[in-house]
Amino acid sequence: MSVENVHEIVSRIYEDVSSQSLERGDVLINTLHAIQDHYGNFIPIEAAEALKEVTGTPLSRIYEVLTFYTMFATHKRGKHVIRVCKSLPCHVTGGQAVIDSLKYRLEIDFGETTEDGLFTLEETSCLGLCGVSPVMMINDEAYGNLTPERVSEIIDEIVSREGSESL
Amino acid sequence: MAKIKSLEELMKIKENAMKGLKMRDSGKRGKVIVAMGTCGIAAGAKDTLRAIVDSLDEKGVDDVSVVQSGCFGLCDVEPTIEVHLEGAEPIIYGHVTPAQAKRIVEQHIVGGKVVGDLIVKRGEL
Amino acid sequence: MPVVENTVLICAGGACISAGEKSVKSVFEETLKKYSLDGVVRVVETGCMGACDLGPILVIYPEGVFYQKITAESAARIVEEHILKGRVVEELLYKGDSGEMKEKPQEELPFFTEQVKIATRNLGVIDPLSIDEYIARDGYFALHKVLFEIGPDDVVEILKKSELKGRGGAGFPTWMKWDLTKKAKGETKYIICNADEGDPGAFMDRAVLEGDPHTIVEAMTIAARVVGAQKGFVYVRAEYPLAIERLTHAMKTAREYGFLGESILGTDFSFDLEIRIGAGAFVCGEETALINSIEGRRGIPRVKPPFPASKGLWEKPTLLNNVETYANIPPIIINGGEWFSQYGVEGSRGTKVFALAGNVKNTGLVEVPMGITLRKLIYEIGGGVPGGKKLKAIQTGGPSGGCIPLELIDTPITYDNMKKLGTIIGSGGMIVMDEDSCMVDVAKYFLEFTVEESCGQCTPCRDGTRRMLEILEKITEGEGSMNDLQLLKDLGENIMATSLCGLGQTAPQPVISTMRYFWDEYEAHVNQGKCPAKKCKTLMRVVIDKEKCVGCTACARVCPVDAISGSVRKPHEIDPEICTRCGSCLAVCRFGAISKVSP
């Protein structure tokens, strides 16, 4: 991607987010979320550098924030980011089997992406859905009352939806 | 919407809205409330909502509205729905899959008979 | 009638008998015998179940699946498909178009009758996107009262009488926080709502934000009026996209109606709100880390004092309260302080929303007066532990709290009592654990969480918790020693005394607490290399008893990693190298052929 293009996009996003804010400065995290949504699940280095130009914030500070928060990624991730909860309530209600089935079915470990670029598997802390544990989120969708069978169904459904969309 | 400035205006909205909540003067004889918190959605409430709307459509029922609310706490039996029909006490159903939703529309909303095995609570929350 | 595992109830009411129940029963029994299941599955005839035109009817337990209009042929099929292979026969399921099934005696559940809904008063009742419905339930009347009838000092008095304490976990008197921020010097002040609910097992804030967002808008506007603030921020964790959506909508409509923004309700008081999103960091639930995060920095806690009330967001006086605390404000203003403090007990007045999760039947949210016993909460309201298992412990207060063992569940839940037991109420999350949980494993689980979420700023927390985790890992692998147990205690004390913020200061709590009540489990791990609960992977195996296995293949089908091999009707076997000890196979075997053993 061309440097000017990235600069333009980031500039626009930053203006957009700032204008909706009460305090113009320090909208860094909201801006990073918007940038990540735009580029699809990750923030390219070029965008971080463009942000430095646009806001005047030192690159070190932008990196500090980017690398601290677990929901920001600096490398490309799959189209569907699966975040499976591994906190205690999910653990005692069968979460282990769900995690095992995800790793087995997708043939990847935590932090990895499937070869076709469809899925990235990540572990996450409590998602606040303990009433329907075990749970996982795929991008912004939540799935609860999971079992290895249900996991299979959900993955199958996404794969077939992707397949028919690309036709 | 003109901004509210006085207690009287606030009271007026309250009265009108209460009627809506209790379905008086609304032209509808009932409503179905689907609990759509994230936990409900994670348990399949979106599909349940769609099934209810489709089923009501299929049966030609147009005097019962379908609305959403937040989770009311009994996450264990979600998806949950509450059926309010005029003149009857509200009934909360649990474990309402799309198939069961269809059953509730047919048996309760159209047929007027409560579906015993899915009841979680009778009466106001 | 107490229902036992593997029971088939066949309705033998008059109608079903005339529809051929007897022949169904005999075919059923014959088929069971054919597959040698007659000793394992009980067949019981019952009285009329009520769905007379759909008979013969039968119910298979433990699942509680109803089948209708059964014939001799379908009876045999049910044995072969459902009982033998665990596959429900969809077409034969009870659909009940005309007959009304006997109601389960559930409507007067203590789950509903024991609750006093104040913070959760509107959940499930109103459409969260309708400001009119919020107003119908007295919404924004409290704001009106504060702007036109009473003053900031009166509000503080009302809160004082209510004895409301912060519901986010710290339990600090709310009136005092508001008063301190009100009295702080400075023209510019801020209001913040902490919606970064990260405690495992807590989800009440999410429910309020998604189901009743206007209560937060109203409460924060009232707070702004009382302390003298102009701008407010709701810091919501990014894992709650629906909450963000609904709150945004609520703020928009509140502005349209004149309850937020310029000249609120026609007065010269102006206040506006903005949402700031988190990005996956539990530590941002700590108030100063949250402030840093809003300022666009790493969510690293600051040293306190100074407290946010005097120096907070951008160094200005800031009022920071939790979602549940705010949700209580409007009704308290309308009904008065004494109305709230009539509930609860001395030192712990009012109601609290508890989140029941884990091995408990009725998982969900309940709002009850403080002072209720744990026994009532878990057994009566929560419905007890499912699967016929015994309760082992209840974890309260998330990663900052400890465990309460079965022997102590008659303790009334109050701030003081929880402290005496070595735990805290915290945000109100109650994680119930049954006899299959290993308490050393649980402690290790919490420490994994803390190590992951530690911000890394101070050595005791960053390095200390990591060392504690390493020791716990050793212990759960059977490599620990008594020395290690002493080291855990020492490290724990040190970390608690020297960490910079609440996360570190309370991180060792689950370890200390489990050691206090389950010392024998720790000892068994280090002295005998045994895990009494048979949970720790290295110290147990899952095996199939070839004598009991009938080869139904149910276990092989649920194994998430294909570790079970065997052909139909032949005994199966688990490969211990592949097996992850998840326990799924155990849960489905109807013949008691699978068990956990110490190696």
TrEMBL record, chain A:
The keyword Metal-binding applies. It comes from the Bacteria. Its cofactor is [2Fe-2S] cluster. Keywords: 2Fe-2S, Iron, Iron-sulfur, Metal-binding, Ubiquinone. InterPro entries: NADP_DH_HndA-like (IPR028431), NuoE-like (IPR002023), NuoE_dom (IPR042128), NuoE_N (IPR041921), Thioredoxin-like_sf (IPR036249). Binds 1 [2Fe-2S] cluster. [2Fe-2S] cluster binds at C85, C90, C126, C130. GO terms for molecular function: 2 iron, 2 sulfur cluster binding; metal ion binding; oxidoreductase activity. Coiled coil: none annotated. The keyword 4Fe-4S does not apply. Signal peptide: none annotated. Belongs to the complex I 24 kDa subunit family. This is NADH:ubiquinone oxidoreductase 24 kD subunit. It comes from Mesotoga prima.
